[in-house]
Amino acid sequence: MSKLDFVNERCRISKNLFTELLWHLKSMKSFKQSGEELGISLSTVMRYFERLKIKEIEKSTKVIHIDEFKGNADNEKYQLAVYTGDRELLTILKDRKSSTIKSYLESLKEKPEKVVIDLFMQFRNVVKSTLPKAEIIADKYHYVRQTEWMLRDIRIRLYNRNSKYKELKKYWKLISKNPLKLTEKQEKRMTKLRKLNEEFSKCYGYKEEF
Question: Is the pTM of this model over 0.70?
Answer without folding.
Answer: no
